[in-house]
Design brief:
The chain has 225 residues and is an alpha+beta fold. It has five helices and eleven strands. An eleven-stranded mixed sheet has the order 1-2-3-4-11-5-10-9-8-7-6, sandwiched between helices. β3, α2 and β4 form a beta-alpha-beta unit. It is globular and about 50 Å long.
Length: 225
């Protein structure tokens, strides 16, 4: 199980780095820690742990005098005094099985700035996903077919691992989206592992749709912000 979680963590770091670079941040990796040279974009962590073996002193030394407000504790293994838990979540996993169904034509890839703007408004990510993301070779942004965006998600590929993030639906009954995601990926991407993380109701919906829970994580927030 940990091997699958390691894949999910590695892919998520790749995704966070893609977004951070779009916002002019540079990353560094030391002692199983990933971090940035300046404040991360909104909704993204300043530091990510890459192993269960990270010690508090190593983390504090890594942070130094940089501006760190959010830490993604990828294995839920930290105990921090100056931070509090913002939320807990679960890593999820699905194998790429190559099976297609008639429902996989109900989504399209976002290709224009105008489409991205509508997607950002529907997902609440205005100002986060910048237009340059559309030209990244490893990233695909999907939305339902139609003028009004009601369902969407992002795919980022790293090696044989496909990460899924920013899953959303404005429809009342949205549990179908987790099987839709598998169908879209089967049709459009090559790989072996599909990973992501979710919490609360969306996590339950994913598991009920056949995704596997492979480990837990926490996101810590600096106290007082």
């Amino acid at each position: 199980m940990k091997a699958k979680q390691d894949l999910a963590v590695k892919n998520n770091v790749t995704w966070c780095e893609i977004i951070s670079r779009l916002h002019g941040c540079e990353s560094r990796v030391e002692n199983n820690l990933w971090g940035l040279n300046k404040k991360a974009p909104i909704y993204y962590p300043d530091v990510i742990t890459l192993s269960t073996e990270v010690h508090t002193n190593e983390l504090l030394n890594f942070i130094g005098d940089t501006q760190v407000e959010y830490i993604k504790d990828s294995y839920a293994s930290l105990q921090l005094e100056d931070f509090e838990v913002l939320f807990e979540a679960n890593w999820i996993y699905h194998e790429l099985d190559g099976k297609l169904s008639s429902g996989n034509g109900s989504y399209k890839k976002i290709c224009s700035d105008e489409e991205l703007l509508r997607w950002n408004i529907a997902s609440g990510l205005e100002g986060v996903l910048l237009p340059d993301i559309l030209s990244h070779p490893d990233v695909s942004i999907y939305a339902n077919v139609g003028e009004v965006v009601t369902n969407g998600f992002i795919v980022n590929c790293s090696g044989d691992t496909i990460g899924v993030s920013n899953v959303f639906s404005t429809e009342h009954n949205s549990d179908f989206i987790w099987t839709d995601i598998i169908e879209v990926i089967n049709q459009n991407h090559n790989g072996k592992h599909i990973v992501g993380y979710e919490s609360d109701e969306t996590y339950i919906e994913a598991v009920e749709a056949g995704w596997q829970s492979i480990g837990s994580l926490k996101v810590w927030k600096l106290k007082g912000i």
